[in-house]
Amino acid sequence: MSVTIDQIREAASVIAGHVVRTPAVETPRLAETTGCARLVLKLESQQFTGSFKDRGAYNKLKSLTPAEAKAGVIAMSAGNHAQGVAYHAQRLGIPATIVMPKGTPFTKVERTAAFGARVMLEGDGIDSAAVFARELAQREGLIFVHPYDDPRIIAGQGTIGLELAEDCPDLDMVVVPIGGGGLIGGIATALKALRPSIEIVGVEAALYPSMFEAVRGSNKPLAGGATIAEGIAVKSPGHLTKAIIKELVSDILLVDEDAVERAIQLLVESQKLVAEGAGAAGLAAILAHGARFKGRKVGTVICGGNIDARLLSQVLMRGLVRDGRVITLRIEITDQPGVLAAVARAIGDCGGNIIEIHHQRMFYDLPVKRADVDAVIETRNPQHVRDIVSKLEAAGFPCRLLSSRSIESPH
């Protein structure tokens, strides 16, 4: 094994007082929703930079010799690792260069630069950014800080496992998101050393099942593409981490985009907790693979909370549409004074709240004396939608549902 429990304990002593000892919180409502006997969330989203990366970054930077620290460090990252390295390098007085892909969101670039790092945008993705970072490290004599395939990084992340073992000693299983594998590698090493019977389950985005394929010896090409769980969208998993996962992790589950969106929404609504896509992947797996966790005492790591505000708002609105709490009805009316008021009154009498309304007069399949009205309505639940539809049709206004996958139109 590349990392031992003693190295993780040493890392815990190094980072103590310099990173947040995050809480492990009980979630009775989520446990009921998922069917778990108990569900605990380890809130790494409460670290100063918003993710677990603070742990490994600080442990690695503290291991540098004075000469190495003076020369400076370089890292490649699209977000969380960049901020962890930049923040702790600034605190320790170590010059830091961060190479980020050209498409990295501006907010992540600015946040990293705000920690005093030299930020360089190179490459179309993290793999090409890594090539540039290694070349620059060699040219300028910088110390390369790998985001996951480094024993000190893995040991730093493994301190989460020590804390879980102390705070929640009766867990049956722990579910951990996998990108390059540093987080699950460290946690699995710690927990399996302390409690050999505990089960460790990994989670990857279905579009980027790199570790899932690697541990099986498969060369199947990744689907790739845009994912809301960009923090774990890794094409090249670590060699050190692969060996740990192969030995200590019992299963790797894949989650699609819908499941991750649903998990983000549930965390906000049930726990008032903001998580990024990768941070919610563990809960997404528990929701999507319910039978695997039913009746078990489960812990999962909310590994990051750095989600773009605009993206979060879209996820929450899409969730309301998916659940039938915001719908769009297309209502056919006669195009004359007072009719629109009658439509609004029928919806209001049922307790629906009209958010937006649009006339559609130019559709070629409508008679000139008629019009369609598209009404965006806030509702309570699917039954409430059906009540509104029935009320409108009873009043002489044929209508059909244009939105929501969770509600079937009466037609």
TrEMBL record:
It comes from the Bacteria. Keywords: Amino-acid biosynthesis, Branched-chain amino acid biosynthesis, Isoleucine biosynthesis, Lyase, Pyridoxal phosphate. Residues 328-409 form the ACT domain. Transmembrane segments: none annotated. One of its GO terms (biological process) is L-threonine catabolic process. Signal peptide: none annotated. Pathway: Amino-acid biosynthesis; L-isoleucine biosynthesis; 2-oxobutanoate from L-threonine: step 1/1. The keyword Flavoprotein does not apply. One of its GO terms (molecular function) is threonine deaminase activity. It catalyses: L-serine = pyruvate + NH4(+). InterPro entries: ACT-like_dom_sf, ACT_dom, ACT_ThrD-II-like, Ser/Thr_Dehydratase, Ser/Thr_deHydtase_PyrdxlP-BS, Thr_deHydtase_catblc, TrpB-like_PALP, TrpB-like_PALP_sf. Its cofactor is pyridoxal 5'-phosphate. Gene3D superfamilies: 3.30.70.260, 3.40.50.1100. The keyword Amino-acid biosynthesis applies. Its EC number is 4.3.1.17, 4.3.1.19. Belongs to the serine/threonine dehydratase family. PANTHER family: L-THREONINE DEHYDRATASE CATABOLIC TDCB, THREONINE DEHYDRATASE, MITOCHONDRIAL-RELATED. Catalyzes the anaerobic formation of alpha-ketobutyrate and ammonia from threonine in a two-step reaction. The first step involved a dehydration of threonine and a production of enamine intermediates (aminocrotonate), which tautomerizes to its imine form (iminobutyrate). Both intermediates are unstable and short-lived. The second step is the nonenzymatic hydrolysis of the enamine/imine intermediates to form 2-ketobutyrate and free ammonia. In the low water environment of the cell, the second step is accelerated by RidA. This is L-serine dehydratase. It comes from Hypericibacter adhaerens.
